[in-house]
Amino acid sequence: MTVESLNKQRVLHLLDAFAGGDVEAALACCTEDVDFLTHAPIDVLPHMVPRHGKAELREFWQTLWSRYSQVRYKAPRIVAEGEEVATYMHTYFRKRSNDRIVQFDMAVFYTFRGGLVAEIREIIDSYDLVQQVLEREIGPSIIGVRVD
Amino acid sequence: MTEHSLWRFSRALHRAINDRHFRDIEALIDEDVEWALYGPIDMFPFLGARQGKDAVLEVIRQLADNFRVRRFDRESIMLGVDSAASMVRYSLTALDSNKPISLRVAQFAQFRAGKLVSMRVLIDTFDLVEQALGRAIHLPKMTSVG
């Protein structure tokens, strides 16, 4: 098996563990100093700040699971080369508050070190994500109406 | 060693956007290409999903009408046999306002016989909208949901 095939399997294992609600199993796929960065508006979504190390990543993932009761994903594109893997994913998060589904696409880039994930970088269609989390259009804010 | 299709496509795309030279890119797009560049299409009509070469070429022409690429840095790149994924930092100029726009873009491309058959692009669109507006969008902080 090539290193690329192995690393793809490792990413899918991490994703399955997280989607299954097993945060510790997902963290076991990561290095102690794992570095996590998602590009999202942290003024609106303050829990999406950068995370460094397992403890901080655990806190972030546990925060997600405290707000969502179900996580599903499909990964129609996975590309790997050497110690890097990129996934294009359709993701679905069910809100605990009202059972509504937040559905968005995300790109996640993983870098491995010693068979473990050492770096995670995410890019999300964040405008759409914010609208779904807020459950409202944010267009009025753009034309100057403050949304509270 | 044959050059990966991504490099030819990338050069042709930048030439199309910056120089309005579309002949090279036309030759590198499959007739049945699938293309998706998700974001607020009411603000940016060139965003959204497209099917077919003509529709994709029209998007590229719209990009050329609206932006100039000043600089791009590939922060991460993975090449498969007929696929590629990259994270690229673009420095653009919006031609209507002459404003600088800085974007981090994730691109997932698939090729067949050297031609693009699928492209999926994701952008931090909230940041894009704020940069286009030139100001922050004021929203409540989501501390208990989201």
Topology diagram in text:
The complex is a heterodimer of chains A (about 150) and B (about 150).
Chain A: H1 3-19, H2 23-27, E1 30-39, E2 51-52, H3 54-67, E3 68-81, E4 84-95, E5 101-113, E6 116-124, H4 126-134, H5 139-142
Parallel strand pairs in A: 1-6
Antiparallel strand pairs in A: 1-2, 3-4, 4-5, 5-6
Chain B: H1 5-19, H2 23-26, E1 29-37, E2 48-51, H3 53-66, E3 67-79, E4 83-94, E5 99-112, E6 115-123, H4 125-133
Parallel strand pairs in B: 1-6
Antiparallel strand pairs in B: 1-2, 3-4, 4-5, 5-6
Helix pairs in contact in B: 1-3
Describe this structure in words.
The complex is a heterodimer of chains A (148) and B (146). Chain A has 148 residues and is an alpha+beta fold. In chain A, 33% of the residues lie in helices and 41% in strands. Chain A has one domain: Nuclear Transport Factor 2, Chain: A (Roll), CATH 3.10.450.50. In chain A, strand 3 (68-81) and strand 4 (84-95) form a beta hairpin. Chain B is of the alpha+beta class. In chain B, helix 1 crosses helix 3. Chain B is globular. Chain B starts with a helix and ends in a 13-residue tail after the last helix. The interface between A and B is large, with 42 and 43 residues.
**Total helical elements of chain A:** 5
Q: Which sequence of SSEs, written as H and E, runs from N to C of chain A?
A: HHEEHEEEEHH
Structural class of chain B: alpha+beta
Compute the number of structural domains of chain A. 1
CATH architecture of chain A: Roll
Any low-confidence stretches of chain B, pLDDT <50, length ≥5? Answer: none
Can you summarize this structure?
The complex is a heterodimer of chains A (148) and B (146). Chain A is an alpha+beta fold and 148 residues long. Helix content of chain A is 33%, strand content 41%.
